[in-house]
Amino acid sequence: MLYLYLILTGTSVGIISALFGIGGGALAVPILYTLFPEFPPQTVISTSLGMIFVNSIINFYNFTKKGKKVDKKLAFFLGLSAMIGVFLGKKFVMILNPLLVKKSFGVVLILLAAKTWLAPASHHSEAHWKLTLTKINPFRPILIGFLGGLVAGFTGLGGGAVMVPFFMVFLKMPFQWLSIYSNFTMIFATGIGALGFALTPFPGYINLPLNEYMVGYLNYLVVGLIFVGAFFSSRLGIHFHAKIPPALNKKLFIALLLLLSLKILVS
User: Fold this and answer.
1) Which of 54, 57, 58, 196 lies 20 to 30 A from 229 at CA?
2) For residue 165, what is the enclosing H or E element?
3) Can you give the residue range of the structural domain that contains 34?
4) What is the average pLDDT score of the chain?
């Protein structure tokens, strides 16, 4: 049954990550805390990052098959700064109290929900926005990528929940481009983050469920089972992404963040 729960979690993650562009960590992390209360936050975070890494690759591939291509200059600034941010976030989580890390995750979700609610939707057309890309100050995507990576390494969110509101506010990015840029950036952020946790020696005296599948702090069996579910549901999320009106998508995203934050804070 545990394996089935993880596959079903992956199915939900695949839909939500493609629909909202958040990587699925906002859903996976609370579920992992519930299914594995014995796991230290570092294991939950690293496992979430590993799952988001493979899931973001799938989502990005599916978007490119539909003709979506990212701007190379913008993608470079986002990806590079995200890798630096996740490296620092991982350093912080290794030295902080586990309960503080959990509660910080819940608070971050509430702040992101508020930020998303207040963020004005971009009314620019795709053509107009592409023309303005050359005029974007590089500091903005660098800061967005860094903050997204920092939150990814610290909470396991994947950074997408941070970057999507910032894409809307600071880059005036149209709704239809939010998910592809978010998934692209998370490939770099979560890949580096998961690798860093996997290379960090895990205390051998701590006995955890599925302990034989640990590499450093990363549980690769959990990552694999969630990936199986996400692999088959990612296209469904992309289909919904194209069908659901931006205003409704935004409200659903806010509701999801609030529900998950309450689950973390009251547990």
Assistant:
1) 196
2) helix 160-170
3) 2-266
4) 79
Q: Tell me phi and psi for residue 215, to 5 degrees.
A: -125, 105
Residue 121, pLDDT above cutoff 60 = no
Q: Give dist(CA 127, CA 16) in Å, integer.
A: 27
Which H or E element spans position 218? strand 218-219
Nearest to 177 by CA among 242, 131, 256: 242
In angstroms, the CA 73 to CA 176 distance is 19
Inform me whether the pLDDT recorded for 192 exceeds 60.
Answer: yes
Instruction: Please give the radius of gyration of the chain, using alpha carbons only, rounded to the nearest integer.
Output: 17
Once rounded to an integer, what is the mean pLDDT over residues 30-42?
A: 81
**3-state secondary structure at position 84:** helix
Report d(CA 4, CA 220) in Å as an integer.
16
Lowest average pLDDT, out of 100-104, 126-130, 186-190, goes to 126-130
The answer to whether the beta carbons of residues 211 and 199 sit under 8 Å apart is no
Two structure tokens written together for 257: 């963040």
Q: What is the total count of domains within the chain? A: 1
What is the Cα–Cα distance from 191 to 167, expressed in whole angstroms? Answer: 21
d(CA 77, CA 124): 22
Q: Is the pLDDT of residue 125 over 60?
A: no
